[in-house]
Design a protein that fits this description.
77 residues; 5-stranded mixed β-sheet; alpha+beta; single chain; 18% helix; globular; 5 strands
Length: 77
């Protein structure tokens, strides 16, 4: 089972990085890029998993599997 982290925009203008089932943010950042980098680093350190990035509108903008996670839809080679 992999960890799922997500990046979400808050009304105060900050971006948070948190686990899907967490009540509180793991970290708070001024930009989406900073939150993305923090989430990727945290996922790599914890053994990989799925990264879910939400836009300002709250909708999923992108998903990425961070190695060594198990990508459910790997690219065909």
């Amino acid at each position: 089972m992999s960890d799922n982290d997500r990046i979400v925009y808050r009304k105060d203008g900050n971006w948070i990085q948190k686990k899907v089932d967490a009540d509180r943010a793991s970290s708070v950042h001024g930009t989406q890029g900073e939150a993305d980098a923090a989430a990727r680093g945290m996922l790599r350190k914890s053994g990989g998993g799925e990264l879910i990035i939400k836009g300002r509108n709250g909708k999923i903008r992108d998903k990425d599997t961070i190695a060594p996670g198990n990508d459910p839809f790997p690219p065909r080679g």
